[in-house]
# Entry
Amino acid sequence: MNFEHSDKHVIPLKITSTEIKENGIYELAVPFPLALVGNIKQVRLFSDDHAIDCSVKVCGSWPDGSVKWMFASFFIKSQEQKNYSVVVYPQEQSLLKASDDFKVIENGNSLELDNCIHSYVINTERVSLSIKAIDGTATHPLLELSNISLKEDVNTPLTGKVTSTAIETYKNLNDGLASTIKVKLCGYHNSPGSERQTDFELELTFYKFSSYVKIEHTIHNPKAAAHPNGHWDLGDPNSFYFESLIFNFRKFDKSALSYQTELMANWQSIDNKAIKIEQFSSGGENWNSPVHLDRFNKVPHSICGYQSVESDHVIHQGQRATPTIKAEKQFAITLEKFWQNFPNGIELSSENINVSVFPQKEGLQHELQAGERKSHVLWLGFGDDSDTLEWVHHTHQVNVPFQWLQLTKVLYPLASFHENELLSNLIETGIDGDNSFFVKREKLDEYGWRNFGDIYADHETAGHEGKDIFVSHYNNQYDPLMGCIKQFLASGKSQWFELADDLARHIKDIDIYHTQEDKNEYNGGLFWHTDHYLAAHTSSHRSYSKHQDSDAYQDHAGGGGPGGQHCYTTGLMLHYFLTANESSKSAVLTLTNWITNVYEGSGTCLELLLAFKNRHLSGIKNHFTGLYPLDRGTANYLVALLDSYELTKDKTFLSKVEHIITHTVHPTEQVAQRSLQDVENTWFYTVLLQAMSRYLHLKLNQGQLDDCFYYCRDSLLNYAQWMLANEYPYLEKPDILEYPNDTWTAQDLRKAHVLASAYYFSPEKNKEYLTKAKYFEDYVANRLNDSETKTYTRILVLTMQNYGAVAFYQNAPKVEFDSLKEEWPKASYQKLSLATAVITTVFRRLLKLSLKREFEWLKKRLS
# Structure
């Protein structure tokens, strides 16, 4: 595909919806090659032959400052079947003259803005939003979000206090002025006794060219869990228990309200009656699955699906509600993922609309675990944009061509979706067929506000006997979020983005431990998947339950917390680039800070006593020699740092990557002494080599072929040489494996990745590497094609994560690299005796001694 047209680049776009049935906001992420776009003013969005208004944000930059990722949102009118494209000019384009400005005016406790059609007033003291229609010089009120009510119980409302306000603007490509404004209020709720109970964030998004308002609310319990004996069951003493969380709206217009319970259902008038629509459970076949166990080890709901109630009488019952409320030509309200995130409810009367994201129910308390969050998104439409909000409930992402993605070199590694037909067909089962990720949701009933978005770890059912549902959560192991986004970008199929977006929201809210009050090596960490071969019981998405059996398998810990061997950030980074969602970027930086603490420690002297005791244990850094373990934890650490560097361009992240590589491997070390034949305990060395390959690719793209580059390159080739002589498909020697299954086959794809990378970076382009890489890829493809377990989640995710490297490196533009360096200086970890290392490390810690930090470190462990 040719993108160059005379003096400009033209990138055709693909709308993922099959047809545009209604007005709506569509979103687009466009990557650019290095140095192509020095200033965003070079870019325009076209509909057929004219430039259209769109809001943009630069989400990523190249080291030279040129634009790497641009996020854009734009408004499409119903029935517009037009051709859309992004055009890049060699010079900045003249800006059109804007007819009016779109800005926030601060007035005491109020923030005011208008788009010439509607006026919006935010009260930061009451945490309210008022909307008025503009008619010439006059305004008349339409709707008010009067408050967001959080109650511990029926008699105990909590008070919300805003502590900070932030305003972010997206500029219009046509005139350079603000066209989307985000207002973010952060604060906390406290009880009548003034004790701080929960934190909250409220982000309001306003658009200049349409009368939609997006409301995203997050409630957060910042406390640390007690997790006795390393168990994380519901019912923890530091959980926050509450009765309800409700958005209270008040209407001013006299027009009658009507409602729709499901998409495409008939609209019904309330006729001045009080109507309540409530989703009690998923409405699916397994609606009362044990996945919904509460702290009392019981499923708390007893009604399948939803009900519409009028004056205590059920007037309608159904399975899955997606309600929208509207006053004709005035306003409309809807809640994203209403039934999926049950329980949810809406109450209507002639003047009030109450949207309950945690509805009040007699005898039921909601539980927000310590370190847990939950976000909900409401949409409002006004005037002509109030006719329907159906578009909100469908994927509205726009694609750029795969060939353009390849040209930009922003994704590593990315190959055509059809490079290997057998592996492509296997990956396709993730969205199509009897064992797709969507079908797996139904099998487990992975719904409800805490579960929705996660993936069923159905591979853990292999040894389960009986017909009861075996509950096991996956918690993003091997980064299926990254895998789904890669498949979306490669194939353009909206189902992959739908899975990715749902999963990203779940990871950010539920799987990350959002606290700073626990141990440093737990704070901000990612919870493991449910413990192997055991049901989740009441641990929910936190791995370990007091109800699980002990000694379930070899070296079974039976308890613990977040650990560096389970840290995945690349999918969250890509989600940020595709959506401009700041919480995804923040999640990457949070996880990077956490895994840094896991390996580098707190810097206390007392910690060194534990480090000395554990210095021979695998999987942890030796704080005296500085040597990092040759495993996936160190690999995850490298990848998190690389992702953080991609997001921020902070060179300290890249320097840390180089420090870790030089303190983990050496270009001339004797690989045979690493005991890699002990597969069960060393297989993950390939994960580290994959992370090193990504570092090499990044340095190459930046034109930095320096000593650090060649140290890493020579180390990679040193291991690749050993692999040529010694590596084989794991299942050729099943007797040395505890569980010889096809997960091992999927892991063999890593070897193909490493060897293909070695081929590309070798100075002579050693074809032995490529031949063996293809051998492993073909072996995996053929064996999995015949496997009865090929659609198990872990196998699919591993295939999605590691697919494409062989074709990527085989087709990458050739580069001449230096020859291998015959002599490298000894690594620092090879130079010091243990005694010298201990004395040096203790002395450095004493120089930074803080009695307060020592006490805090000890206190958190004794508690």
Remarks:
- The first helix runs from residue 402 to 408.
- The two ends are 62 Å apart (CA to CA).
- The chain has a mean pLDDT of 92.
- The first strand starts at residue 4 and ends at 5.
